[in-house]
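haha ok so turns out i had the wrong file open the whole time. this is the CORRECT one, sorry everyone. sequence first:
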Amino acid sequence: MAGLRAVFFDVGETLVDEEAWWRRLAARSGVRPHVMWAALGVTIARGEEHEQLWRHLGVERPPAWDELVYSRDDLHPDALACLGAVRAAGLFVGVVGNQTPAMERWAREQHLPVDLVASSSAWGVRKPAPAFFERMVAEAACAPAEVAYVGDRVDNDVEPAASAGLVAVHVRRGPWGLLQPSSPRARLVVDSLAELPEALASLT
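then structure:
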């Protein structure tokens, strides 16, 4: 993995399959899951953040929605092995995304094979703000070009990471990952994290 010293991972749809989480959120909202997903598709097509789906549905966001967390079973089957392999290669590994405090606590409780777990809530800045990616670089104590960011979203992950000088990696899975066309600014495009350690090793 010549040139790389750190790899950071997004959470939702990158490490975690969010289908069950969306089902639980739909149940709390009194909305059928397929209706919730249709609204999510509208937000993606319009380039909006997912919070806008409540407006499309014409319902209030359910109370305490930000306390709803994933379960261990929601982790993608390739997530833990990938994190372990990248760390075993001698790289600093971090997990950080646009997450609530409850989600950050959940991630810490999983005892993932990583060096850092953080969130936009803790840092006080959200993707795609440049300061989010600058904070990652500072946490890893590396130059931007020595840091890779792995995420499913082109708009929130790939493009801003590339603009910040990081190695942008697009994982094509989940709603955003499959519906948003890959960007030529992505240094790597993979369909699963099982491919990632070898793909990272190919970078020169």
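The beta strands are 6-9, 92-97, 116-119, 147-151, 167-171, 188-190.
again sry for the mixup
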